[in-house]
Amino acid sequence: MPQQATVTWHDPAEVYPQIVGLDGLGYVLAVRDRIVPPDPLMESLGIRLVEVAPGTVAVVCTPTGAHLNHAGTVHGGMLSTLLDCATGFAVHTTLPVNTTAPHVSVSYQFMRAGRKGIELRCTGEVIRKGRRLGHVRGEIHDATGRLLATGETTHAVVSEETVRSAATST
Asked: What homologous superfamily does CATH list for 12-168?
């Protein structure tokens, strides 16, 4: 029997004016404190930012049936998304105003399967951030303490203008 869910999110074009002028840490704190919404993917998947400090963050999500693969375990893409969100936000906490840090390389390792209804917590911690590159480590644990996945990401530190113009060029 097919299942249904209602998904809502905020239009990024409406949110962007609220974050212009914030440094990275200010932006991430505004998301954690629900002053501004997270990005649409996080909203639609139920991923919440719960802890923030310079160079480190934690995001959580409680998997539903919509997050599962046909084996009945949490889809690897969902685990990858949690790592992506946590590592991206972690490096953002170190950025000055008008810069961003898109992922340029990722490596994830999966050790165990997640289960429906058991909260997942993903931490991201900056290993090193320079003027042009940032390196971040992430881990996912479930509410029982099991380590499900680890990963490392590399981010290019660039101006927001560079990213926005690349997104609109054809």
From this structure: Hotdog Thioesterase (3.10.129.10)
Q: Specify burial of residue 110 (Cβ count, 10 A radius: 0-12, 13-18, 19+).
A: middle
- pLDDT tens track for 29-78: 999 999 999 999 999 999 999 999 999 999 999 999 999 999 999 999 99
User: Which one-letter DSSP state was computed for residue 67?
Assistant: G
In terms of pTM, does the model score above 0.70? yes
**How many residues are listed for the chain in this entry?**
170
Q: Which of 29, 36, 31, 35 is nearest to 15 (CA)?
A: 36
**Backbone angles phi and psi of 136, in degrees to 5:** -135, 145
Tens digits of per-residue pLDDT, 11-28? Answer: 999 999 999 999 999 999
Number of Cβ atoms within 10 Å of the Cβ of 127: 14
Query: Nearest-CA neighbor of 67 among 111, 24, 23, 117?
Result: 117
24, 92 Cβ separation under 8 angstroms? yes
Amino acid letter, residue 20: V
Instruction: Work out whether strand 133-142 and strand 120-129 pair parallel, antiparallel, or are unpaired.
Output: antiparallel
